[in-house]
Each structure stands twice: as C-alpha cells, then as structure tokens.
What we know:
Layout: H1 5-30, H2 39-49, H3 56-68, H4 77-114, H5 119-125, H6 153-163, H7 165-189, H8 196-209, H9 214-218, H10 222-239, H11 244-271, H12 279-283, H13 285-291, H14 297-308, H15 314-342, H16 344-350
Helix pairs in contact: 1-3, 1-11, 1-13, 1-15, 2-15, 3-8, 4-6, 7-8, 10-11, 14-15, 15-16
Amino acid sequence: MQTDWTDLQSKTIDALRFPMAVAVVMLHYGKTVVLDATGPLRVLCILFQEGICRLAVPCFFLLSGFLFFNGLRTWSWPEWGRKLRNRVRTLLVPYLLWNVIALIALWIYYNVQAGPVSLYQQFLNAGGVRMFWSVSGALPVGSQAFPVDGPLWFIRDLMLFVLLTPAIYLFLRWTKVYGVLGLCVLFLAVRRVVPEGLLFFVIGAYLQLAGKNLLQTAWPRRYALLAVAVLSMAAIFLLFDVSDYWTRFSKFFFLVSGIGSAICLAAWGWEKRTRLSVPFLAGSSFFIFAAHEVLILQNAACPLVETLLPTDTVWGSILAFFLTPALAVAICLGLLYLLQKLLPRTAAVLTGGRKTAYR
C-alpha cells in the first residue's frame, strides 16, 4: 500500500465514481423487479437492492461533505463563496439542463406513443416549475419526492445541504463527534426526521474538519469493517420480512461499514491497476446518473433484453438482472463518448466540467 495517503485518497475517491454510478442504475432497475421476485432472484434483489447498491448514494453524500469542507477547516467566507460559485457550474447548471432534457425526451416519447401532446401541456403534467424539485408536490428533502429527471433528487438535496454548510460547520465545531453520534441516534430512533443524505453529508464534513484521511482511517480497520458489513447484510436477509425497524437498524450499520469497506476495496483496486481507475469511466459517473432514466433504462435496455432472454424463466430473469443495467450503462457510455467527440463543450456543460482527480 502507498504511504502517500493524501494522493491515494484522491485516487480512491476517483475510483469509486464509476462503480457508484453502476450501483445506482442497478438499484433503479431492481426496484421494478423486487416486488414480484421469488427464489434465487429474490435473494439477488435483497443482496443488491437492499444491500450493495444501497451504498452508492450515502457514499456520494459522505464524499461530497468531505470534499466541500476541504480548505474550510478554519471558516472563510471568501473560500465558502468560491466553493458556492463552483457548485453553480458543477451542480446547478447541469441539474437544470438535465431536467429540461428529461422533459423534452418524455414529451417526444408521449407524442410517439399516445398522439399529439403540446410541450406546454407536458410541462404542466410534470408539475410546471415544480418539475425541477418535486413532480408530486411533496416536500422534497427527506421524502419520496423527485424532479422530472428522478435520479437527480440527490443533486437537489446536495445543493440544499451546501447552502446549509455554515450552520453545519458551527454545529460540528460546537458538538464535535457527539453531534454526529446524536444525529445517528436520532436517525435510527425516528424515521425520516434526519434525512439519510444529510446524515452522511455531516459525517463526511466531520471527518474533514477533524483532519481525518478517509483511507488512512479505514484501511487499518478493513477486516473489521468487512466483518460488520457481512454480518449486517446477513441480518438484513433474516429480518427483511420480519421487522421494518430492525431491518433499517441493520441497514445503517451495513451502510457505515460497507462504505468503509468500499473505500478500502477501491484503494486496493487502484494499487492493482484495475479498470475501476480508467479516467473516462470515472468522469462518466455524473452523465450516467443523469441520463440512465431518460428513456434509456426502462425504454431501451429493458425491452431489448426482454426480446433476447426468456425472462419468465429463473436463469433468464437472473441474467436480465445483470444484463439490463449493464446495457443501460453501455448506452450511456456510448452517448457520452460521441458527445465528447462531436460536441465537447456541450458535454462539459452537461457534466459540470468534471475531470478526474489524477492524470
């Protein structure tokens, strides 16, 4: 293992991006399968839908909180303002554009499928201006409310958490680790009082403000973290149909230990020079997050796989469980590659100008 922990931490974070994006695609495909799944397919659904793939979004929030407070261990309003302006380019602008793209794509799809519908009517059907934060009109943060490009709900929540960073900084400076532990207890005790994304954003912020290196903190504990993750996953299997509360309790410990294990695995993968570290793949994560449900996963990948495989059989449904998300990711990668070749400036705007953390 490298001894330059700061450099390896940067490479590790970069190596996590693509697997997190793939996990989100699998999660969104699995939600349509898990309700009717039985036998081996149900086991796979619980393992991925309620386990492995659930690590992606909390990990995303933790890393976002950790990276935002880099350079803000001592508060500086000019530095905070600079970071805020940077998030306008990397979060707000692509967020707005992707929701507009999703609206237009759905409008074209409905016109092809159901006959003429005006773009204005489609806009109203999506909630009007509300389509940018909550199509259903529900309270966005901490609920099941989604913008018209559904997967970008976490970008919406992240932008709000970024605005709350002065308050988060004061909270952590006053309460230190006890404040984090208190939020964890509150998260477990009362459902949805503390949004999961906010909790992990605060955990990431705390680790940064405490001067912790993510990898250096996790690596010596890697075997213990893996053991807790395996035991927690086993508890999820046993409790899934028995107790919602204790399943949620087990999931929390799985998320914490699983994220630590994923960080160690990504670092080990980088050391072994695995393909997790390919710059194009790392830089594709935002595009995959934003694009995969814009007529790609459900409207392109699913029908194509269903025509190729007998999904009414056990082995066919299992193959489809892996092949469908893989095909959706491949389509996204192909579109991004073409966009970068033909319209590089457009690609940069749609991905927030994201680049890999290493060269």
